[in-house]
Amino acid sequence: MAYEFKIIQRVEFSDTDMAGIVHYANYFRYMDAAEHAFFRSLGFSIWTQQVEPPVGWPRVHAECDFKQPLRFEDEVEVHLLVREKKSKSLSYLFKFHKVGVSPAVEVARGLVTAVCVTEHHGRMRAAPIPKVVADKIEVAPAELLA
After folding, report:
1. Average pLDDT over residues 9-13
2. What tens digit of pLDDT does each residue of 19-61 get?
3. Most exposed of 10, 34, 127, 133 (fewest Cβ within 10 Å)?
């Protein structure tokens, strides 16, 4: 069972604002990329069609705290940790560490909660996480979530 996943993102010029630092909205894109890669590592997609009915994972909460700026061509490790698993939702903690500096520097920390949904007559409805998905995901140990 999995409770964490890591990806490396390179800051592209288009990710930066007029001050030359990563625009805050891009941290949410980085979190999405990590979550999508996490699901792929489990053999699924964020739009999970391997179950009937297919399920999706819209966000119901997202936040990010920024500690230090990232700049063009910096590399950042995005560390996804499963913070909470309920019957119909998953919550993630994301830790952002700038790559290539010693000691490692945490530059941001984010939280995202996504709800498992199905489509019913053109509307989304919360649904239990399919067993085949839930069986592959567990909550990270408390010491990693600190």
Report:
1. 97
2. 999 999 999 999 999 999 999 999 999 998 889 999 999 999 9
3. 10
pTM above 0.85, yes or no: yes
Residue the block writes with tokens 């067993």: 131
Tell me if 139 sits within 8 A of 82, measured CB to CB.
Answer: yes
- What mean pLDDT comes out for the span 102-123? 94
d(CA 77, CA 100): 10
Would you tell me which CATH number, out of the four given (2.140.10.10, 3.20.20.300, 3.40.50.300, 3.10.129.10), belongs to the domain 4-90+99-125+133-137? Answer: 3.10.129.10
Which pLDDT score, from 0 to 100, does residue 120 have?
86
